[in-house]
């Protein structure tokens, strides 16, 4: 196998915590291990309950700064006939990695994500996802995730490394469409309002 190019090494370095990164620390008020995290926003294509063709991905808090999640590939998620679209698989990894921020209790958005596709994922298969935070450096939060088929210990089908960037609530209110922002903020359930802006859009 040929050596990685300078460009390849640059991508890998950008997604690895720098030497001065600190280990992630689970927030004292983070959901307990085993807790189902639920949707952060009902219209989110990754986890929202009100998206008819969304992934309806359900993440669960793990030990430390880890999460697990599952989603079953439906016909609306296919690219090639009978197989999950690569973009949908990337979305599943991104959504799972974004759920790590719930355990750190920060608002963060995806800054960069690189996905490796190792084997096809057929329609009807359940993707079992595992993600962990690998380090924190200033506003940057680093993480890795894998998706397995055939069970939580099955063969790895996809994997990703990512860096998230911590932001303030104004990131969403400044850049989102006013009707959705206002509707979310006007919800009388203030816990639901807070959750809508907790993880990556």
Automatic annotation (TrEMBL):
Question: What membrane topology does the UniProt entry give?
Answer: Peripheral membrane protein
Subcellular localization is given as: Cell projection, Ruffle membrane; Cytoplasm; Membrane
Which transformation does this protein catalyse, written as a reaction?
A: dodecanoyl-CoA + H2O = dodecanoate + CoA + H(+); octanoyl-CoA + H2O = octanoate + CoA + H(+); decanoyl-CoA + H2O = decanoate + CoA + H(+); hexadecanoyl-CoA + H2O = hexadecanoate + CoA + H(+)
Q: Name all Thioesterase domain ranges.
A: 82-141
Pfam families referenced in this protein's UniProt entry, alphabetically:
4HBT (PF03061)
Write out the ranges of the annotated region (Disordered). 1-31
Question: Which InterPro entries does the UniProt entry name for this protein?
Answer: HotDog_dom_sf, THEM4/THEM5_acyl-CoA_thioest, Thioestr_dom
From the UniProt annotation, give the residues forming the signal peptide: none
Query: What EC number(s) has UniProt assigned to this enzyme?
Result: 3.1.2.2
Domain of life according to the entry? Bacteria
* Keyword annotations of the record: Apoptosis, Cell membrane, Cell projection, Cytoplasm, Fatty acid metabolism, Hydrolase, Lipid metabolism, Membrane, Transit peptide
- Could you say which protein family the record assigns here? Belongs to the THEM4/THEM5 thioesterase family.
Kindly give the PANTHER family that the UniProt entry links to this protein: ACYL-COENZYME A THIOESTERASE THEM4
Indicate what this protein is called per its UniProt record: Acyl-coenzyme A thioesterase THEM4
- Organism, scientific name: Streptantibioticus rubrisoli
């Amino acid at each position: 196998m040929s050596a990685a190019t300078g460009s390849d090494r640059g991508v890998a370095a950008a997604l690895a915590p720098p030497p001065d990164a600190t280990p992630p620390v689970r927030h004292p008020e983070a959901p307990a291990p085993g807790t189902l995290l639920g949707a952060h926003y009902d219209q989110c294509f990754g986890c929202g309950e009100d998206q008819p063709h969304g992934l309806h991905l359900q993440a669960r808090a793990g030990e430390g700064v880890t999460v697990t999640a599952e989603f079953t590939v439906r016909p609306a998620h296919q690219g090639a006939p009978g197989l999950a679209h690569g973009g949908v698989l990337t979305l599943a990894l991104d959504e799972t990695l974004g759920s790590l921020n719930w355990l750190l209790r920060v608002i963060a958005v995806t800054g960069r994500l690189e996905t490796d596709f190792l084997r096809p994922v057929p329609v009807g298969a359940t993707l079992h996802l595992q993600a962990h935070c690998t380090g924190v450096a200033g506003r940057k939060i680093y993480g890795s995730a894998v998706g397995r088929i055939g069970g939580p210990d099955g063969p790895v089908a996809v994997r990703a490394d990512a860096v998230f960037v911590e932001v303030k609530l104004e990131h969403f209110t400044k850049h989102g469409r006013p009707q959705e922002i206002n509707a979310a903020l006007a919800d009388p359930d203030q816990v639901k309002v807070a959750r809508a802006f907790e993880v990556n859009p």
